[in-house]
Amino acid sequence: MRISKHWLSEWVAVPADTAALAEQLTMAGLEVDSVEPAAPLFNSVVVGEIVACEPHPDAERLKVCQVDDGTGELKDVVCGAPNAAMGLKAPFAQVGARLPGDLKIKAAKLRGVKSHGMLCAARELGLSEDSEGLMPLPADAPVGEAFRDWLNLDDDVIEIELTPNRSDCLSVSGVAREVGVLNGEKVSSPALPTVPAASDRALPIDLVAEADCPRYCGRVIEGVDAAAPTPMWLQERLRRAGVRPLGIVVDVTNYVMLELGQPMHAFDLERLSGGIRVRRAEAGETLTLLSGEPITLSADTLVIADEIQPVALAGVMGGDATAVSETTTQVFLESAFFAPAALSGRARQYGLHTDASHRFERGVDPMLCLQAIERATALLLELAGGQPGPVTDVQADQAMPQPGVVALRPARVNALLGTNIEEAEMRDTLTRLGMPPQTNGDTWQVQAPSWRFDIAREVDLIEEIARVHGYNALPPRRAAAPADIPAESEAQVSIARQRMVMVDRGYQEAITYSFVDEALQASLDPDETPLALANPLSSDLGVMRTSLWPGLVRALVHNQNRQMARVRLFETGLRFRGSLDSLDQTPVLAAIAAGPVHEADWSARERPVDFFDFKADVEALLDLAGPNRKLRFIAAEHPALHPGQCARIEMDDEAIGWIGALHPRVTTAHDLSGPAFVTEIQQSVFTKRPVPAFESISRYPAIRRDLAIVVKESVSAQSVEDCIRSAAGEALRSLDIFDVYQGKGVSDGFKSLAMGLILQDYSRTLTDEEVEATQQRIVAQLKTTLGAELRE
């Protein structure tokens, strides 16, 4: 909401210092987003009048004007504006003037003709983006008067970022009411007289949707000159509020909205058929909006209609078919109250957001309708003429919002705020806010005013007292208990760190329900009996999850159904196992992967993710649990996993989770596209990380030996590694399997493993004889334990 300080000062006495006013409003909960001048700095610009205008002798598009600037001496000015003409009044920058952009006006010769000053467009003064011609001024503009003074441009525009509950401040009157309360000043609104009817012309109004629109005021005005110019003062107030002038009728309704907070609309009466009906749209009805965009209405949309068709989207935007134009002579003014719940989200439903919808969605004072229509009538008659008919005010009393009565305990105010505010101050604050309390006994009864939709509970009233008293005046107090900072154990890896690793590996975090479908749960964890909910949200959320896999599988199906081929998801959370009396809530991390290994790329062949790709991601995660921990992937069987691609994960000889491909039965049952790999790891493994300790680096050289052996295909790489480490002793620093081969030269049922061994001692350089002896010992152990042979 943009507020002109000058306009605000007509309603209430405001602090002279704009910065102080902005600080005051912000501390009262009306956050000031910015303060900017109403116009850029410029000087020596006066109201000028063209008293003569002739074509330039040497330039077809230029004119030579004689300008009266009030000094008693006419100035010759060369001007290229298309609207320059005798009798036009416009801003005139005298010689020596400085304009925005640090432009200094000097006497100059243009095409052989001297020019003493410059006639200005609004854009050259920073007042508009329009640069089509000179800025025309009204005929009564005083020639020679300083332009800044005449238009009150030494003004500040305060932009307030309002929270949704403070719709009462979306107007000059609302902000003035707040300033008056904060400074103890009286708010004086401009004269708002009742305009008597000059004719009997009226339209019938039928409130079909009474709950959505319990009050609708309308008035016919005939003989309006819709082509009349909008006066400069009104244009300026609209401009400073960020509203573009569009014509006298629309400008008046916008002005009233900014002034009082009541959105209005004007229809061309001659384009309406019969009376006004406020109703819900029929499914499939269409409406072309003022913006020219046609929309198809849904059945839950509130519309303003005539006897034939919808003519406006209620509380949002009017229709193009009944729009006011310069040829309009008969106007129907609308001023209504729409229930916030009826309009909430309707504008967004059609891709719209208007000043009217912004206000109606948050709540507009239902008592403003009549006041606004009288104000708009008075302005329209003054500026565009016409004969008004009577105001038709139709109300559905049973559907009108009823101001609530809230109980307030003065003792509770001080107890909650930690203050010693006197009851007299509380009473005065509430009275100035428009809700004088009934103060009988220890509990007061406070009736919220019609413009405050957010006053419903005692704490709302306490907040009002606190902000008017001043948040910065509330006493600071220390917490009653000391705030102990818990020490973080180096042995524990935070969930945040685990998430970072998964995200770095290309996974996205999912958050799924702890309630899952019983059938889905049974297909993924049939050995566990889930805990059933007594009152489930729906039939597919009937039991507590015994694993995080059901939620991830459901998320995978959701993504694949939306043509997402490559999916990588993980989740951290609790699984629930056991009965209600002895429920085991175990924190775990689970992940699922499906689709290609990489996104499509010209430099790499596309292939689907396999067990070893997924296992690498799991190993990267488990690296967080610390170095030198005994990590094993043991071939095992799980009812939900593929028999040939399934392993139990162990660390330090303790089972910590599972990894594998989902069983084909599961992928078929849940319509998964291709194989999917899952894992689930207990969080307890990340609470036992070995604390880092110093370890010296050997000063002696390391020796590498490569070894290729042939073993049966059923022998795991892990068993080979265990056998080598037991035979090599302490001299073995690292062991890497860098090749697996099956094919020519290797018998069927066997495989070749190639390994790199790094040997090193801390106290001396190993000799070739010692290395050779170690290698022979390893080969012998492999042959004895695993039946391995050296590959020739």
CATH superfamily of the largest domain: Phenylalanyl-trna Synthetase, Chain B, domain 3
Tell me about the biggest sheet? 7 strands, mixed
CATH class of the largest domain: Alpha Beta
Total number of beta strands? 39
- Helix percent reads 10-25%
Structure description:
This protein is of the alpha+beta class and 792 residues long. The chain has 6 domains: 2-38 and 155-183, Phenylalanyl-tRNA Synthetase, Chain B, domain 1, CATH 3.30.56.10; 45-150, OB fold (Dihydrolipoamide Acetyltransferase, E2P) (Beta Barrel), CATH 2.40.50.140; 205-399, Phenylalanyl-tRNA Synthetase, Chain B, domain 3, CATH 3.50.40; 405-473, Phenylalanyl-tRNA Synthetase, Chain B, domain 1, CATH 3.30.56.10; 495-687, BirA Bifunctional Protein, domain 2, CATH 3.30.930; 703-790, 2-Layer Sandwich (Alpha-Beta Plaits), CATH 3.30.70. Helix content is 24%, strand content 26%. The protein has 20 helices and 39 strands. The strands form 11 sheets. The protein has a 7-stranded mixed sheet, sandwiched between helices. Strands 5-4-3-6-11 form a 5-stranded antiparallel sheet. Strands 13-16-19-20-21 form a 5-stranded mixed sheet, with no helix packed on it. A hairpin with an 8-residue loop joins strand 37 (732-741) and strand 38 (750-759). The longest helix has 19 residues, at 768-786. The radius of gyration is 40 Å and the shape is elongated. Its EC number is 6.1.1.20. Residues 401-476 form the B5 domain. Mg(2+) binds at residues 454, 460, 463-464. Its main location: cytoplasm.
